[in-house]
Structures are given as C-alpha cells and as structure tokens.
Write a structure and sequence with these properties.
- By secondary structure, the chain is α/β, with parallel strands linked by helices.
- The chain has a single domain, classed as Rossmann fold (3-Layer(aba) Sandwich).
- Helix content is 34%, strand content 26%.
- The strands form 2 sheets. A 9-stranded mixed beta sheet has the order 2-1-3-4-11-10-9-6-7, sandwiched between helices.
- A hairpin with a 7-residue loop joins β9 and β10.
- α2 crosses α8 and α3 packs across α4.
- The longest helix has 15 residues.
- The chain is globular and about 45 Å long.
C-alpha cells in the first residue's frame, strides 16, 4: 500500500535538520505500525499535486501554518481533491490543517478560536465505536498547536472525538475520510520548540498551562494504529 503525503507546509532549514519534515515524521510513525507501507510525498505548497487520484492507495494531508480560508491556489486545489476523494471513495487522513480543510471543503466552517491557542497536550473523548477503532479506548491524548478550529461539521461527517476547548476534535466522512485536530506525529521536543517560538503570541498563562499539560503521556502509537486500521479497512 502506498500512502501519498500531501505536505502542506515549508519548515525552516534548521528545523528540518533537527526535527525532520512533516512527511518524514509521518513516515516514521506509520511505518512503525505497519512496515509494509510505502510513501510518496507531494509538496503541495509548491503546487506538486498527484496527477491522478489513483497514484496512491490512500492520502494524508498534514498540518500547516496556513489557514484553510486563505485565498491561495494550492488550498483551493486541495479542497477539490477532498471532494474527489469522497466521490471516488479514496481513503484520506487529515491532521490539524488537514482536519480543518476537509470540513471546509465539504461544507463545514472553520474559524479562529476566540479563546486563543490550543497548545500542549489535549485529551479528547471518543464519541463512537467504528470497526477501525481497535484497540478500543474511550479517551486519547494528542499534542496540539492551533488557533483555528472546525466550528461546524459538514452534513455528511460524523463526530468521532471531542474536548472542552475543541468540541470538534475529529471526524469521519463515510468510509473515505478520517481526521484529527491533534498531531500523532509530533514529539515532545518539537512541541516544546513550537511553544517557545510562539510564547509571546500564546500568552504566558496559556504557555504555562501548556507546559503543565506535558506531564501526561500522548497516545501517538494508538492513534497511528487507528489510522492504519482505517486505510487498510
């Protein structure tokens, strides 16, 4: 199985040297669950797109510093690609920006949250029991870093995860699309780097609360297993 990674951000060279590109972190995460997976990266911010939706067996849309409501050509292209995935029943995973873009592309809404940044470790409740959700768990923790969030789901989407700060923390669209607001590919050192970099924008109180949240463990491998189950199902 080939997973096409739609990389929706460009990181600084020093960040890449220290932490790797987003595509690399996803490859490491998912191949740790299923070594038989193969990957192909598309740098969509450079307008490197799949020429045919069937180039890959499934796709994964990464996070980004951009907002899904920005008027940028590659973002518009991705929105149409999401529609095509639903129509052709092609598996697609959306993470953070990818989660938000899926919602917007299918008729949902995305806004900047009036309560500021979601940052640190977020604990979300599972709201359903689909077949791919094994091992079964009622709650999971993921690292988060976002200002925007989905405020209304598309009509055809089902809520799969929720928390107090971000009520729409994950969704599923038919058997084609699975999304999470949190980042299963993030590691502690990278989220700490982001938090330090954005400390002034986040605000000191939110920064300290985010640092305290890191006392708990994230469930990266668990969510990665769910993702692999979904694309393999």
């Amino acid at each position: 199985m080939i997973i096409g990674i739609l990389e929706a951000d460009e990181l600084a060279d020093d960040v890449i040297l220290r932490y790797g590109r987003y595509a690399e972190t996803f490859e490491q995460l998912l191949s740790g669950i299923d070594p038989k997976l193969a990957f192909k990266t598309y740098h969509v911010t450079r307008e490197q797109f799949p020429q045919d939706i069937n180039e890959c067996d499934a796709y994964l849309l990464t996070g980004s510093k951009y907002s899904v409501y920005e008027d940028i050509h590659w973002i518009h292209w991705l929105q149409q690609f999401v529609v095509d995935c639903v129509e052709q029943q092609k598996k697609l995973i959306g993470i953070c920006f990818g989660h938000q873009l899926v919602a917007q592309a299918l008729g949902g809404t995305v806004h900047k949250h009036d309560k500021g940044w979601g940052i640190g470790l977020a604990s979300s409740d599972i709201t359903c029991a689909p077949d791919w959700l094994t091992p079964r768990q009622d709650q999971f923790n993921l690292l988060v870093s976002h200002q925007d969030q989905v405020t209304r789901l598309p009509q055809q989407a089902s809520l799969i995860a929720t928390n107090e700060f971000c009520p729409i923390a994950g969704c599923q669209v038919d058997h084609s699309i699975l999304t999470f607001q949190g980042h299963p590919e993030f590691k502690r050192d990278y989220i700490e780097h982001l938090m330090t970099q954005r400390r002034q924008d986040i605000g000191e109180q939110a920064y300290q609360q985010a640092m305290q949240s890191l006392q708990h463990e994230e469930d990266n491998e668990l969510v990665a297993q769910w993702i692999v189950n979904f694309v393999r199902n």
